């Protein structure tokens, strides 16, 4: 059981989200940085889809009301447990009554906290994720507030001692430094060639700054407005997280996990699955660059990502056996 | 649409119910096929999400084209729903301005809103929200220039040439002309969405508040 003291700007219960439900208007939602939540769960011996906390821009503070093993992954928010630093990508056992605090991350947007066994919230339409717009799932269909209490499910694995962890820097798991641009690859979509040639060049060469009102629904960017070769009126169609749309302002936006399931703005492309977690961690006000790639490159990147997760699983398995 | 999805468009920019019936049939034909993970009917289009190990864009596109030429429109099935509406009042505060915009009396406006059988083309945008065809063109009105921060579930709305009912409280740029107590989405029900593509609905007057 944990008790929230301060949720921070936005703290929600998320697993890997809902799939197959777009046809009834239910979106994917779920952890935006799926890789971070999966690794946090792997460290604890949980199912990768177990529900944890997604803390946006830190600021979260809660009390462990009983002894609980946990792991922090994603944005490094200088976490402390009873005022002592807690490393990220590491399993720790919090004693009963101890307090975990997150500061504002130095880089990255979202810190994931997994708990041994996973958070015990009801499964709603196939998932424990919070659908903030729909107002269901997670904890009462909303972001957490001070005073909320969350239970954990029985854990598969007993964590002992001071725990173990991963070398995040060595495994290239850390979000980009704020000073570094985040490069995301995309596959051109139906209206890409409806962009004026000069605008296509601008899109793939300019520095796009993430607007401060970007959130779980979508990322908006400032830069020079892009122009279509002719006005387009599209009929509404299904869209996916990662879809890069061009609203009338001419400034692109990228749909994220909480996006509507249907849209009608011209589509320039779709950010590849392997790069969506990177975009989800790109800090507000920092620079993103878009790089066109082929379907083959996207598949290679996805396979490489899965191979790396398998390698991490192997390292964790070894560490767990040593720790035991 | 990215590495694992294909968007099939079957129109020349004008919405057509006959085309939509074939879209439903294509969606049914492809649902459950090995390696096809999701079929999502849109407005005269169909989004397919697939497993990249089983399909690539070219092979799936060929499969769709083959199915499309062979497929017949889904027979008129679907269910019929009567949706009782309280028109006007605080929860339907755009009723009078919408009637004025259409150059109609409020009575005529409501009569034209309640006379058609609306067809559910597809669900999407928000959970359980139905894209409806059948609005009398005289009632069309461009969306508000600034969206409202929140419209409650059950708000009966007009946006451009489309009619709809808000299924979950949300921001909206559409005009609200009334409200209904019918629940279009309940996450704890099975199925969670009241409506399905091909269903028909009719608005009936429960009350008018001016």
Characterization of the model:
The complex is a heterodimer of chains A (324) and B (210). With 324 residues, chain A is of the alpha+beta class. Helix content of chain A is 17%, strand content 25%. Chain B contains four helices and twelve strands. Chain B has helices spanning 17-30, 57-70, 95-102, 106-114; strands spanning 5-9, 36-41, 45-50, 80-88, 118-123, 130-133, 148-151, 155-159, 162-165, 170-172, 175-179, 200-209. Chain B has a seven-stranded mixed sheet with strand order 6-5-12-4-11-8-9. Chain B is elongated. The mean pLDDT of chain B is 93. The interface between A and B is large, with 42 and 45 residues.
In short:
With 324 residues, chain A is of the alpha+beta class. Chain A contains 4 helices and 20 strands.
Keywords:
heterodimer, A: 324 residues, alpha+beta, six-stranded antiparallel beta sheet, 20 strands, 17% helix, globular, B: 210 residues, seven-stranded mixed beta sheet, 12 strands, 32% strand
| Measured distance between first and last alpha carbons of chain B | 47 Å
Biggest sheet of chain A, in brief?
Answer: 7 strands, mixed, barrel
Q: Please tell me how large the radius of gyration of chain B is.
A: 19 Å
Poorly predicted residue ranges of chain A: none
N-to-C order of helices and strands of chain B: EHEEHEHHEEEEEEEE
- Count of individual helical segments of chain B: 4
Seen as an oligomer or otherwise, the chain set is heterodimer
* Beta strand % of chain A: 25-35%
Indicate the percent of residues in helices of chain B: 10-25%
Strand order within the widest sheet of chain B? 6-5-12-4-11-8-9
Give the class of chain B from helix and strand content and strand pairing: alpha+beta
Percentage of residues in helical conformation of chain A: 10-25%
Backbone shape of chain A: globular
Largest interface: A-B, 42 and 45 residues
For the sheet with most strands of chain B, the description reads: 7 strands, mixed
Query: Helix and strand succession of chain A?
Result: EEHEEEEEEEEEEHEEEEEEEHEH
What fraction strand of chain B?
25-35%
Shape of chain B from CA axes? Answer: elongated
Number of helices of chain A: 4
């Amino acid at each position: 059981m944990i008790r929230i003291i301060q949720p921070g700007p936005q703290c929600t219960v998320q697993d890997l989200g809902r799939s197959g439900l777009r046809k009834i208007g239910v979106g994917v939602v779920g952890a935006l940085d799926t890789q971070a939540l999966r690794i946090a769960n792997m460290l604890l011996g949980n199912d990768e889809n177990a529900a944890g906390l997604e803390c946006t821009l830190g600021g979260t503070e809660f009390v462990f009301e009983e002894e609980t093993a946990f792991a922090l992954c994603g944005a490094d928010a200088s976490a402390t447990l009873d005022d002592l630093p807690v490393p990220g990508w590491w399993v720790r056992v919090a004693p009963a009554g101890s307090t975990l605090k997150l500061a504002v991350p130095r880089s990255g947007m979202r810190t994931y906290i997994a708990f041994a066994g996973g958070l015990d919230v009801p499964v709603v339409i196939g998932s424990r994720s919070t659908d903030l717009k729909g107002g269901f799932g997670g904890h009462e269909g909303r972001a957490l507030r001070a005073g909320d209490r969350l239970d954990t499910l029985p854990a598969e694995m007993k964590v002992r001692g001071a725990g173990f962890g991963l070398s995040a820097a060595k495994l290239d798991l850390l979000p980009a430094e704020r000073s570094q641009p985040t490069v995301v690859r995309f596959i051109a979509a139906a209206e890409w060639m409806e962009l004026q040639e000069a605008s296509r060049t601008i899109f793939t060469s300019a520095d796009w700054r993430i607007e401060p009102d970007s959130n779980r629904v979508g990322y908006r960017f400032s830069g020079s407005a892009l122009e279509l070769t002719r006005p387009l009126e599209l009929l509404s169609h299904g869209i996916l997280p990662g879809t890069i749309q061009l609203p009338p302002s001419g400034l692109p936006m990228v749909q994220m996990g909480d996006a509507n399931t249907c849209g009608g703005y011209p589509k320039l492309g779709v950010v590849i699955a392997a790069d969506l977690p990177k975009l989800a961690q790109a800090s507000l006000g920092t620079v993103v660059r878009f790089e066109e790639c082929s379907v083959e490159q996207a598949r290679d990147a996805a396979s490489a990502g899965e191979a790396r997760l398998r390698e991490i699983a192997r390292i964790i398995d070894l560490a767990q056996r040593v720790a035991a | 649409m990215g590495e694992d999805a294909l968007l099939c468009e079957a129109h020349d920019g004008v919405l057509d119910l006959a085309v939509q019936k074939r879209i439903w049939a294509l969606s049914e034909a492809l649902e459950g096929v090995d390696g096809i993970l999701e079929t999502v009917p849109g407005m005269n289009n169909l989004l397919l999400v697939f497993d990249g190990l089983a399909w690539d864009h070219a092979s799936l596109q060929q499969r769709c084209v083959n199915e499309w030429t062979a497929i017949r429109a889904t027979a008129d099935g679907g269910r019929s729903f009567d949706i009782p509406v309280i028109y006007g009042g605080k929860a339907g505060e755009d009723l009078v301005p919408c009637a004025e915009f259409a150059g109609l009396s409020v009575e005529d406006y409501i009569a034209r809103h309640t006379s058609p059988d609306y067809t559910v083309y597809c669900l999407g945008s928000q959970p359980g929200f139905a894209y409806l065809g059948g609005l009398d063109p005289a009632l069309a009105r461009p969306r508000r220039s600034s969206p409202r921060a929140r419209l409650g579930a059950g708000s009966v709305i007009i946006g451009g040439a489309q009619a709809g009912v808000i299924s979950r409280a949300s921001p909206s740029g559409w005009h609200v002309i009334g409200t209904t107590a019918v629940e279009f989405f309940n996450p704890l029900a099975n199925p969670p969405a009241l409506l399905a593509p091909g269903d028909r609905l009719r608005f009936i007057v429960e009350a008018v508040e001016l």
